[in-house]
Amino acid sequence: MSEKRPTIVTVAEAAGVAASTISRALKGDKRISPETRARIARVAQELGYTPYASARALSSGQSGLVGVVLGPGTNPFYAELLYEAVRQIGERGMRLLIIHAGPGPVENSMADALLQYQVDGCLISSVDLPSHVGAVCTANGVPVVMVNRVAQADTCAVVCDNAFGSVQLGELLLRSGRRRTALVRTSAASSTARERDAGFTTFMQSAGYPPSLRLDGRSTYEGGFEAGRHIAALPAAERPDSVYAVSDIMAWGVLDALRLAGVRIGQDIAVVGFDGLPQSARPIYDLTTVEQPVVAMIGRGLDLLQARMRDKGLPDETISLRGRLIERGSSGPKGR
């Protein structure tokens, strides 16, 4: 029969302490003296106890664990971010802890991760960083980098230049002769959505053609579909000749609703989006969009994070990267 796997009781007996002390030490409880934690780490390592990484963390002061806080899985953009985070974090010899920021405040997820897993740093790409999260991170000495979000609290951020990309889309629509534009935006508390909305609106106003219609697409396919139905139901004289949806997922909904209503995409109405998701290249959508530099955003975000894991005294920094305009059939040939 194979040798039994060591348990927390085995480690406790070998270290000469209670099992509860082992548990608290492996969670990084600072009430346990550094000497005792170091001894427990050594014993756990020698016995091959399962939380080996935690034991190693007690000796090195680092867990090698990076938390990634993501938004709802219904938006495929977060899947793109996650794939790239998994790949690059693994290449750098670290491990990944995924924290889903769905219903409930993101600070609770952050606090749980910090207390339970002792993450060395955290990437957040979900919502604006609440001040409480900054306080929790500061108190625990954990650096945070926002990706695709601008932080309200003091921390680092890596973002796409949302305003510049939105201006590019506005220029494209004006060059093709479009003058009556609908903006499918979102009321969600997202710095990304606000920047795209403001960048596009300011540019179109300066050109003398402010958006004639503003609809809330709720950052979802369903919200975009409802916006598309509303546009299709308008009398021809009032209908916009172009639509800018501030995310690809909303643009897909707009496209499907317009097409079902018999509207000719790219001819009657041009539709453009923002994110550059792979699905947008499918023939059914053929969506003109601005592709976010996800690979570079994650890479620069990890650079900032690792630098602050080594030196927590470094100043905060925000990096803005430009996306790539991809012109496809949905923006149409009108006026060219």
Structure description:
The chain has 336 residues and is of the alpha/beta class. It contains twelve helices and twelve strands. It folds into three domains: 8-60, 434 Repressor (Amino-terminal Domain) (Orthogonal Bundle); 65-159 and 293-322, Rossmann fold (3-Layer(aba) Sandwich), CATH 3.40.50; 162-292 and 325-331, Rossmann fold, CATH 3.40.50. Strands 2-1-3-4-5-11 form a six-stranded parallel sheet, sandwiched between helices. Strand 1 (65-70), helix 5 and strand 2 (95-100) form a beta-alpha-beta unit. The longest helix is centred in the C-terminal third of the chain and has 17 residues, at 294-310. The N and C termini lie far apart (79 Å).
* Beta strands, count: 12
Strand content: 15-25%
The arrangement of helices and strands along the chain is HHHHEHEHEHEEHEHEHEHEEHEE
| Strands side by side in the biggest sheet | 2-1-3-4-5-11
* SS-based class: alpha/beta
Mean pLDDT: 86
Quickly name the level 1 CATH class of the largest domain.
Alpha Beta
Structural shape:
elongated
Distance between the termini: 79 Å
Unreliable parts = none
* Percent helix range: 40-55%
At CATH level 3, the topology of the largest domain is: Rossmann fold
Report the total helices: 12
Radius of gyration: 25 Å
> How would a crystallographer describe the biggest sheet?
6 strands, parallel
Q: Judging by the overall fold, what is the CATH architecture of the largest domain?
A: 3-Layer(aba) Sandwich
Q: Tally the structural domains.
A: 3
CATH superfamily of the largest domain: Response regulator
Domain HTH lacI-type: 6-60
Protein name: LacI family transcriptional regulator
Keywords: DNA-binding, Transcription, Transcription regulation
GO molecular function, one term: transcription cis-regulatory region binding
